[in-house]
Design goal:
SH3 type barrels; alpha+beta; 156 residues; 3 helices; 5-stranded antiparallel sheet; single chain; binds zinc ion; Alpha-Beta Plaits; binds magnesium ion
């Protein structure tokens, strides 16, 4: 494939958001967080296993939309190295690293089937986020169980 063809596979966007440096394989989880756009919204394009400077990455490009901070916090849990690029008039106007929240509510479900947050009681799931030494850990506020792997699987 020639260089030009490669570049034309995804159209440049005029206004919107590019979520770059998503951990390879996690783009579909990012889409789940953002909720799929309906027909009134702009184009969303996804690159899986794109070759980046530091290895493979996924990229999600969303036309005509900027993200809410709660959405960005959720993305941080599954793609801690992601950057959020705001595109205006075809240019990168702003570039922000995602920020890992210290606490999340109503975002993931507890791994413990007997946890009160998984019962019929009207409780909202709550986790303390520990992100020391590059490992993300979520500790349940109710039962203390820790989720440290495959966090994306537990997204609500
Ligand atoms: N108008 C646009 N439409 C679609 N994607 C764009 C547009 N402008 C930039 N991008 C994409 O947004 C991301 C950030 O763009 P930038 O020009 O800052 O690249 P970069 O210098 O490689 O950034 P970084 O250092 O964060 O990797 C890249 O993935 C780039 O392909
Ligand atoms: Mg780059
Ligand atoms: Zn629990």
């Amino acid at each position: 494939m020639s260089y030009v063809e490669k570049e034309l596979r995804v159209r440049r966007i005029e206004n919107g958001t590019v979520i770059d440096h998503i951990t390879a394989g996690k783009a579909l989880n990012v889409l789940k967080i953002l909720e799929l756009p309906d027909s009134s919204q702009g184009v969303v394009s996804i690159l899986l296993n794109s070759q980046g400077k530091y290895g493979k990455k996924d990229v999600v490009k969303i036309e005509k939309r900027e993200l809410k901070s709660e959405e960005v916090d959720k993305i941080a849990l599954i793609a801690p190295y992601a950057t959020i690029n705001i595109i205006r008039n075809f240019n990168v106007e702003q570039k922000n690293k995602v920020h890992i929240p210290s606490y999340v509510e109503g975002v993931v479900r507890c791994i413990n089937p007997n946890c009160i947050s998984n019962s019929n009681e009207p409780t909202t799931s709550k986790f303390k986020v520990n992100s020391e030494n590059n490992e993300l850990e979520l500790r349940c506020f109710y039962c203390g169980r820790v989720i440290s792997e495959n966090i994306a699987e537990y997204l609500l």
